[in-house]
């Protein structure tokens, strides 16, 4: 049942290129410069009438939501608020008939996310779910649904559900941008392009597995880890830290790299590994200078960078590369080393990777 893998988590990490292909299947029309989302169930007119967009989720799905904000604001120029479901549902949120609330949930059964959906509906808002489980409660009760089609996820630590959520959000952003006239057919085609090579590039990112195992051996005894990234890499930093906490029980925190000076830098010394997410993009230089600040305090740096763009990184303690793609797609690739690093550290520590202590796969109580 684990297909030759030692754990479901590892199997699911390796399934990601296939999972992403399935998320994309039948949805891309590069010739016409269009995206088709079969279950969205909302007319173009309804989408044009949206004045405000909320994305609500828990845990890893909330990290995907943070990425979604970046993508939707960029491609559709629509302002997006991101909320943790347990906060949203009790806050008397501002929702009216021109508000679109997007609920993200792998299981479609998370109690707080389901309650947030009901709250948004009760206020007359439009709702769309991004779900992995077909016919789950959240999928059924939403006005529309975008299925991630990742296949069953058994490991408690979410992996393929996360990367497919990011891809689904990219498709939604593109579709909203197109329908709302922020992106024309030519631009849409350009933005579809990097999706076509994504599964292949994910395969390449998986090839670092053995190297990451070596890195895991070197860093497994650290008591705390810091994960830093900017822009779309910030949610990946949060996700990397969550993966490590969840399955290896090592304390880890994710921060926007630019926020380091405002507090977390005080933690840095030779005992704290800092995972830097720094693929090539407009803020690459800034990431490098943040990295120098860490090195100046004897911090140990594990850099995740783009193949062919590692020169400016200088001396790092460990380097993992991913293939080059656009800034908007890069998070799907940088997620892979985050998962593998947490996985190998957990295996070395001998924890129960698929069933970490105190955690349930789907949290159906408050
Ligand atoms: O099924 P959901 O996406 O609604 O689950 C939300 C969280 O409980 C879930 O992502 C959790 O944080 C994972 N165990 C993280 O790996």
TrEMBL record:
Catalytic activity: D-fructose 6-phosphate + L-glutamine = D-glucosamine 6-phosphate + L-glutamate
Domain of life where this protein originates: Bacteria
Active site (catalytic residues): 361 (for fru-6p isomerization activity)
A GO molecular function held by the record: carbohydrate derivative binding
Major localisation: cytoplasm
GO cellular component: cytosol
Enzyme class: transferase
Keywords from the named record: Aminotransferase, Cytoplasm, Glutamine amidotransferase, Repeat, Transferase
Enzyme Commission number(s) of this protein: 2.6.1.16
Quaternary state and interactors: Homodimer.
Its biological purpose: Catalyzes the first step in hexosamine metabolism, converting fructose-6P into glucosamine-6P using glutamine as a nitrogen source.
Name the UniProt record assigns to this protein: Glutamine--fructose-6-phosphate aminotransferase [isomerizing]
Organism the protein comes from: Syntrophotalea acetylenica (Pelobacter acetylenicus)
């Amino acid at each position: 049942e684990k297909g030759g893998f030692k754990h479901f988590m590892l199997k699911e990490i390796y399934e990601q290129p296939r999972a992403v292909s399935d998320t994309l299947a039948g949805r891309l029309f590069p010739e016409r410069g269009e995206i088709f989302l079969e279950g969205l169930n909302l007319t173009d007119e309804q989408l044009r009438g949206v004045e405000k967009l909320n994305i609500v989720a828990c845990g890893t799905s909330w990290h995907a939501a943070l990425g979604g904000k970046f993508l939707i604001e960029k491609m559709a120029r629509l302002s997006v608020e991101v909320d943790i479901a347990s906060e949203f549902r009790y806050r008397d949120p501002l929702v009216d008939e021109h508000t679109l609330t997007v609920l993200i949930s792998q299981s479609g059964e998370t109690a707080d996310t389901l309650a947030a959906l009901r709250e948004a509906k009760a206020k007359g808002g439009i709702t769309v779910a991004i779900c992995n489980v077909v016919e789950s409660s959240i999928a059924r009760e939403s006005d529309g649904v975008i299925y991630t089609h990742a296949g069953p996820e058994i490991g408690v630590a979410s992996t393929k559900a996360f990367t497919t959520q990011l891809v689904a959000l990219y498709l939604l952003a593109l579709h909203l941008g197109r329908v709302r006239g922020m992106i024309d057919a030519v631009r849409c085609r350009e933005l579809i392009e990097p999706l076509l090579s994504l599964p292949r590039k994910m395969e390449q990112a998986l090839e670092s597995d053995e190297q990451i195992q070596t890195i895991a051996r070197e860093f497994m005894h650290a008591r705390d880890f810091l994960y830093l990234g900017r822009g779309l890499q910030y949610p990946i930093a949060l996700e990397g830290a969550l993966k490590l906490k969840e399955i290896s029980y090592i304390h880890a925190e994710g921060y926007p790299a630019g926020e380091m000076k405002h507090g977390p830098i005080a933690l840095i010394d030779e005992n704290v590994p800092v995972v830097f997410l720094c693929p090539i993009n407009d803020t690459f230089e800034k990431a490098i200078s943040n990295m120098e600040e860490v090195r100046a305090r004897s911090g140990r740096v594990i850099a995740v960078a783009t193949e062919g763009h590692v020169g400016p990184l200088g001396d790092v303690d460990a380097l993992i590369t991913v293939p080059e793609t656009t800034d908007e797609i890069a998070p799907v690739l940088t997620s892979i080393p985050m998962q593998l690093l947490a996985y190998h550290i957990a295996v070395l520590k001998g924890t129960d990777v698929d069933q970490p202590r105190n955690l349930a796969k789907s949290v159906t109580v408050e």
